[in-house]
Amino acid sequence: MPEESITHINFEELNSKAVAQPLISHIYTADPSAHVFNGKIYIYPSHDVDAGEAFDDLGSHFAMEDYHVISMDSPTGEARDNGVALHVNDVPWAEKQMWAPDANEKDGKYYLFFPAKDHKGIFKIGVAVSDSPTGPFTPQPEAIKESFSIDPAVFKDDDGNYYMYFGGIWGGQLQRWRSGSFNAAQPESPVAHLPNDKEPALCAKVAKLTDDLSAFAETPKDVVIVDENGNPLLQGDNSRRFFEASWMHKYNGKYYFSYSTGDTHFICYAIGDNPYGPFTYAGRILEPVVGWTSHHSIVEFNGEWYLFYHDSSLSKGVTHLRSIKVTKIEYDENGFIKTIKPYGDLKALI
Q1: E strand or H helix at 15, and its extent?
Q2: In the chain, % of residues over pLDDT 90
Q3: Which of 114, 169, 213, 331 is the most buried (most CB within 10 A)?
Q4: Which burial class, exposed, middle or buried, applies to 91 when counting CB atoms under 10 A from its CB (0-12, 13-18, 19+)?
Q5: Which ranges of the chain have pLDDT less than 70?
């Protein structure tokens, strides 16, 4: 993920046109997973740092070490940083790269789900538990058995079942698990082991969780996204196919699976009738933001819907130094989400 030229961007103009401003500015934050617990908003983001790592397509420069929890009384209220909730040094199985997390609540306990590379350089997904939504969180000694890749998102359905959606290609290593075990060949290539452009796209994964939210209750299944004719999207359809950043929400009885297209920088969504899909591609939620990555969450608060996302405007375009934002979502009469232009009338700047 090499840095793109930003010399053409007038950041004063961009920030004046932006539909939202950074929620906090004293640290860099990204990948905001937002939830409403006990009438308040809690955001579980990555904590971006400049660790001096090389810029590459494996994402080595995303060298995050810990998590902070951000809380808000409302989407327009003050955002508060509640300090370090979990550090990589406290996780026995993890070595580095605490990438995009998520959280959820059950029976008064709060669960933080997070990816990290283990001591063999393989991404796994862990769980940490707290009595408070802001932590601190106590990690389980081992990663979730048979977990892999990145970007866990845990959805609680109306029937009380919890599902984890996860996965990300390129640096997220999802393509290295196509055979059911980790393929370590060509370690420096982010695109080795991907399907070819005319094959069905590599899918995110979904698995129901056990009652204690600490393990998969089943073998993970593919989250298949299909086109208007019911055909799975192809790997070469990189303006629509899945790359990373799964999220699930429910609206008017339908399941909305949303995600990032990665190298084309869109947040898109698809609609299905159950948590497993298939999901029919429905459009774009967010046009490209400044910075290479795009990652989001969607949450309802007091009858209104909000998109939490990030960009690199505060760091003036540094891809791995991002800031979380929030803006309102609108649906049309048919349940389709109206596309958001993050900088108003300005053309997409990526």
Answers
A1: helix 11-17
A2: 91
A3: 114
A4: buried
A5: 1-5, 53-54, 347-350
